[in-house]
Amino acid sequence: xxxxxxxxxxxxxxxxxxxxxxxxxxxxxxxxxxxxxxxxxxxxxxxxxxxxxxxxxxxxxxxxxxxxxxxxxxxxxxxxxxxxxxxxxxxxxxxxxxxxxxxxxxxxxxxxxxxxxxxxxxxxxxxxxxxxxxxxxxxxxxxxxxxxxxxxxxxxxxxxxxxxxxxxxxxxxxxxxxxxxxxxxxxxxxxxxxxxxxxxxxxxxxxxxxxxxxxxxxxxxxxxxxxxxxxxxxxxxxxxxxxxxxxxxxxxxxxxxxxxxxxxxxxxxxxxxxxxxxxxxxxxxxxxxxxxxxxxxxxxxxxxxxxxx
Length: 309
Ligand code: NAP
Prior knowledge:
Blueprint: E1 2-7, H1 11-22, E2 28-30, E3 44-45, E4 55-56, H2 57-70, E5 74-76, E6 80-84, E7 90-94, E8 97-106, E9 110-112, H3 118-122, E10 128-129, H4 132-135, E11 145-149, H5 153-162, E12 168-172, H6 182-190, E13 194-197, E14 200-206, E15 215-220, E16 226-230, E17 233-236, E18 240-242, E19 272-274, H7 286-308
Parallel strand pairs: 1-2, 1-8, 2-5, 8-19, 10-17, 11-12, 11-17, 12-13
Antiparallel strand pairs: 3-4, 6-7, 7-8, 9-18, 14-15, 15-16
Helix pairs in contact: 1-2, 1-7, 5-6
Bound molecules: NADP nicotinamide-adenine-dinucleotide phosphate (NAP).
NADP nicotinamide-adenine-dinucleotide phosphate binds at residues 47, 115, 149-155, 157, 174-175, 179, 181, 237-240, 284.
């Protein structure tokens, strides 16, 4: 039986793994389908303390995993299929195998939010994408106009990155100013290749009939006018949805699916703890996720010590 199983290998999960491993709890850490979490899809992380030159997101996560493994964490490429948290020990179905554990840390992070258009779904991977660093360099996007949707730090980062490949980047945002941090917003707006399209929503991705992206239909929310912008790719960067579906009805969460901890990092189910973006819709930073992973590990350690005393 496991002392602790950690769901997720983003900043929260791997920090929890480092701490629980150093506490000799030999944590089992499940990667899910995105080992390293969302940070692996970022280019340079400039605001993680200790890296004045910035650090590549993938490299940062690889180093965190190595650090956790050095102290005895076992990282397994596997997906949690279902949980039974009514019984002690907890019972987890992991890719069809039963795993029993005394405690659980949910650090399952968040995934990309979609616009919710049928044309967006039909053209996903045919020009519609959610990750510029993963797909931006593809030949289909080279020297072509590209669209980024969103007004936050992610959208700015995507737009800036895409200027390396695109002829121009339309940044379509539903307001008349960016939500992004001031430094990101001013860098973005100063880039001559980035053309902001304010107060606007993408209402359709074209062209489903051609089975590839040729443009977007855009509605101005103030004038209600619609235009078509030609482009070869649409990069959607409008935020995230927590990966918590599996725990719905079992663990307390808000209407958007973010887990609500009860005491510290402990959830409404004693012995189940939460950390990172799956419970945080406010700060959502690599360093805050890491901090919460540390807190969850300390809470688990105390919980297990209590069981044994
Ligand atoms: P975000 O800050 O929540 O921004 C999402 C943007 O998408 C907002 O501008 C929002 O518009 C827009 N949006 C949301 N739903 C939409 C819809 N259905 N249609 C059109 N537009 C929609 O998300 P984020 O940019 O992914 O950032 C998440 C967190 O990660 C933030 O805390 C951010 O600071 C952090 N982050 C940091 C860095 C960095 O420091 N290098 C990089 C990336 C992300 P409204 O403004 O109207 O709400």
